Amino acid sequence: MHEEVVTEISLLELRSDLAKIAETATPKRVLRCLTEILVKRTGHKVAAYLYDYSGLPELIDESSLPKASRGTLSYPARDQARPDTILPLVVDGEDFGGIVFPDGVELSPDMSTLVDLYRHEASQTLYVIWLRKSVKHAAANAEALHTIRRATLDTLDFGKVTMTLLEHSRKYFNVDAVALLL
After folding, report:
1. In this predicted model, what pLDDT tens digit does every residue of 116-145 receive, in sequence order?
2. CA-closest candidate to residue 82, choices 115, 55, 52
3. Residue that wins the pLDDT comparison between 147 and 126
4. Contact, 127 vs 92, CB < 8 A?
Protein backbone atom coordinates (compact mmCIF):
# COMPACT_ATOMS: atom_id res chain seq x y z
CA MET A 1 0.00 0.00 0.00
CA HIS A 2 1.04 3.55 -0.65
CA GLU A 3 0.87 6.32 1.86
CA GLU A 4 -1.94 8.67 1.13
CA VAL A 5 -1.12 12.25 0.33
CA VAL A 6 -2.85 14.43 2.88
CA THR A 7 -4.20 17.45 1.14
CA GLU A 8 -6.56 20.10 2.28
CA ILE A 9 -8.84 21.55 -0.28
CA SER A 10 -10.66 24.83 0.06
CA LEU A 11 -14.24 25.25 -1.04
CA LEU A 12 -13.02 27.58 -3.76
CA GLU A 13 -10.67 24.88 -5.12
CA LEU A 14 -13.43 22.28 -4.92
CA ARG A 15 -15.83 24.58 -6.74
CA SER A 16 -13.21 25.25 -9.42
CA ASP A 17 -12.52 21.53 -9.89
CA LEU A 18 -16.22 20.68 -10.15
CA ALA A 19 -16.77 23.54 -12.61
CA LYS A 20 -13.93 22.24 -14.82
CA ILE A 21 -15.62 18.85 -15.00
CA ALA A 22 -19.08 20.32 -15.61
CA GLU A 23 -17.87 22.59 -18.41
CA THR A 24 -16.32 19.84 -20.52
CA ALA A 25 -18.06 19.23 -23.81
CA THR A 26 -17.07 15.69 -24.77
CA PRO A 27 -16.85 12.36 -22.93
CA LYS A 28 -13.14 12.08 -23.70
CA ARG A 29 -12.47 15.48 -22.11
CA VAL A 30 -14.57 14.54 -19.08
CA LEU A 31 -12.32 11.51 -18.53
CA ARG A 32 -9.13 13.50 -18.98
CA CYS A 33 -10.30 16.27 -16.65
CA LEU A 34 -11.48 13.77 -14.03
CA THR A 35 -8.23 11.78 -14.02
CA GLU A 36 -6.10 14.94 -13.85
CA ILE A 37 -8.08 16.26 -10.88
CA LEU A 38 -8.02 12.92 -9.06
CA VAL A 39 -4.26 12.57 -9.52
CA LYS A 40 -3.78 16.12 -8.26
CA ARG A 41 -6.05 15.69 -5.22
CA THR A 42 -5.23 12.10 -4.18
CA GLY A 43 -1.59 11.91 -5.24
CA HIS A 44 -2.23 8.48 -6.80
CA LYS A 45 -2.29 7.19 -10.35
CA VAL A 46 -5.77 6.89 -11.79
CA ALA A 47 -7.29 5.36 -14.92
CA ALA A 48 -10.85 5.86 -16.15
CA TYR A 49 -12.97 4.36 -18.91
CA LEU A 50 -16.34 4.80 -20.60
CA TYR A 51 -18.59 2.28 -22.29
CA ASP A 52 -19.77 2.45 -25.87
CA TYR A 53 -23.39 1.73 -26.84
CA SER A 54 -22.75 -2.02 -26.89
CA GLY A 55 -21.49 -1.99 -23.30
CA LEU A 56 -17.80 -2.51 -24.02
CA PRO A 57 -15.08 -0.20 -22.69
CA GLU A 58 -14.38 2.26 -25.50
CA LEU A 59 -12.81 5.49 -24.25
CA ILE A 60 -9.94 4.88 -21.85
CA ASP A 61 -7.77 7.46 -20.12
CA GLU A 62 -4.56 6.02 -18.69
CA SER A 63 -2.59 9.25 -19.07
CA SER A 64 -1.51 9.31 -15.41
CA LEU A 65 -0.02 5.81 -15.59
CA PRO A 66 3.62 5.18 -16.50
CA LYS A 67 4.01 4.44 -20.21
CA ALA A 68 5.03 0.85 -19.47
CA SER A 69 1.75 0.27 -17.58
CA ARG A 70 -0.58 1.74 -20.19
CA GLY A 71 -2.74 -0.80 -21.97
CA THR A 72 -2.14 -3.49 -19.35
CA LEU A 73 -5.29 -2.93 -17.29
CA SER A 74 -8.46 -4.76 -18.18
CA TYR A 75 -11.88 -3.18 -17.87
CA PRO A 76 -15.11 -5.16 -17.50
CA ALA A 77 -17.96 -4.97 -19.97
CA ARG A 78 -21.13 -3.33 -18.66
CA ASP A 79 -22.85 -6.67 -18.05
CA GLN A 80 -19.87 -8.23 -16.24
CA ALA A 81 -19.29 -8.15 -12.50
CA ARG A 82 -17.23 -5.12 -11.53
CA PRO A 83 -14.37 -5.62 -9.08
CA ASP A 84 -14.43 -3.57 -5.87
CA THR A 85 -11.35 -1.70 -7.11
CA ILE A 86 -13.41 0.00 -9.82
CA LEU A 87 -15.55 2.96 -8.78
CA PRO A 88 -18.54 3.27 -11.13
CA LEU A 89 -19.68 6.35 -13.04
CA VAL A 90 -23.46 5.90 -12.77
CA VAL A 91 -26.49 8.22 -12.89
CA ASP A 92 -30.10 7.04 -12.57
CA GLY A 93 -29.11 3.47 -13.40
CA GLU A 94 -27.22 4.52 -16.54
CA ASP A 95 -23.72 3.03 -16.26
CA PHE A 96 -21.17 5.12 -18.14
CA GLY A 97 -17.93 3.45 -17.00
CA GLY A 98 -15.60 3.63 -14.05
CA ILE A 99 -12.50 4.89 -12.28
CA VAL A 100 -9.61 2.64 -11.32
CA PHE A 101 -6.82 3.20 -8.82
CA PRO A 102 -4.48 0.54 -10.27
CA ASP A 103 -2.20 0.47 -7.23
CA GLY A 104 -5.03 -0.81 -5.02
CA VAL A 105 -5.11 2.36 -2.96
CA GLU A 106 -7.31 2.51 0.11
CA LEU A 107 -8.54 6.05 0.55
CA SER A 108 -9.32 7.68 3.88
CA PRO A 109 -13.01 8.40 4.52
CA ASP A 110 -12.48 12.11 3.77
CA MET A 111 -10.58 11.40 0.56
CA SER A 112 -13.16 8.80 -0.45
CA THR A 113 -15.91 11.42 -0.01
CA LEU A 114 -13.95 13.87 -2.15
CA VAL A 115 -13.47 11.25 -4.88
CA ASP A 116 -17.22 10.50 -4.72
CA LEU A 117 -17.98 14.21 -5.28
CA TYR A 118 -15.78 14.25 -8.39
CA ARG A 119 -17.26 10.95 -9.58
CA HIS A 120 -20.77 12.27 -9.14
CA GLU A 121 -20.00 15.48 -11.06
CA ALA A 122 -18.35 13.54 -13.90
CA SER A 123 -21.31 11.12 -14.04
CA GLN A 124 -23.78 14.01 -14.17
CA THR A 125 -21.79 15.70 -16.94
CA LEU A 126 -21.66 12.47 -18.95
CA TYR A 127 -25.40 12.06 -18.44
CA VAL A 128 -26.09 15.58 -19.77
CA ILE A 129 -23.87 14.92 -22.81
CA TRP A 130 -25.68 11.63 -23.40
CA LEU A 131 -29.11 13.31 -23.08
CA ARG A 132 -28.14 16.08 -25.51
CA LYS A 133 -26.96 13.52 -28.03
CA SER A 134 -30.15 11.47 -27.58
CA VAL A 135 -32.37 14.51 -28.05
CA LYS A 136 -30.43 15.59 -31.13
CA HIS A 137 -30.70 12.10 -32.61
CA ALA A 138 -34.44 11.89 -31.83
CA ALA A 139 -35.05 15.29 -33.43
CA ALA A 140 -33.14 14.24 -36.56
CA ASN A 141 -35.19 11.04 -36.73
CA ALA A 142 -38.45 12.94 -36.37
CA GLU A 143 -37.43 15.45 -39.04
CA ALA A 144 -36.41 12.68 -41.43
CA LEU A 145 -39.64 10.76 -40.88
CA HIS A 146 -41.69 13.92 -41.39
CA THR A 147 -39.88 14.71 -44.67
CA ILE A 148 -40.28 11.13 -45.91
CA ARG A 149 -43.97 11.11 -44.97
CA ARG A 150 -44.52 14.42 -46.73
CA ALA A 151 -42.75 13.18 -49.86
CA THR A 152 -44.82 9.99 -49.99
CA LEU A 153 -48.10 11.81 -49.44
CA ASP A 154 -47.36 14.63 -51.89
CA THR A 155 -46.58 12.39 -54.81
CA LEU A 156 -46.98 8.95 -56.15
CA ASP A 157 -43.72 9.31 -58.06
CA PHE A 158 -41.70 6.29 -56.92
CA GLY A 159 -38.41 7.86 -58.08
CA LYS A 160 -38.93 10.97 -55.96
CA VAL A 161 -39.92 8.92 -52.90
CA THR A 162 -36.86 6.66 -53.33
CA MET A 163 -34.48 9.60 -53.71
CA THR A 164 -35.96 11.28 -50.62
CA LEU A 165 -35.56 8.08 -48.62
CA LEU A 166 -31.95 7.65 -49.74
CA GLU A 167 -31.05 11.28 -49.10
CA HIS A 168 -32.46 11.33 -45.58
CA SER A 169 -31.12 7.89 -44.73
CA ARG A 170 -27.60 9.04 -45.59
CA LYS A 171 -28.00 12.39 -43.84
CA TYR A 172 -29.66 11.38 -40.58
CA PHE A 173 -28.97 7.70 -40.10
CA ASN A 174 -25.46 7.49 -41.58
CA VAL A 175 -26.59 4.71 -43.91
CA ASP A 176 -25.59 4.54 -47.55
CA ALA A 177 -27.64 3.30 -50.48
CA VAL A 178 -25.87 -0.07 -50.59
CA ALA A 179 -26.74 -0.78 -46.95
CA LEU A 180 -30.38 0.11 -47.65
CA LEU A 181 -30.53 -2.25 -50.59
CA LEU A 182 -29.12 -5.11 -48.52
Report:
1. 999 999 999 999 998 888 888 888 878 877
2. 55
3. 126
4. yes
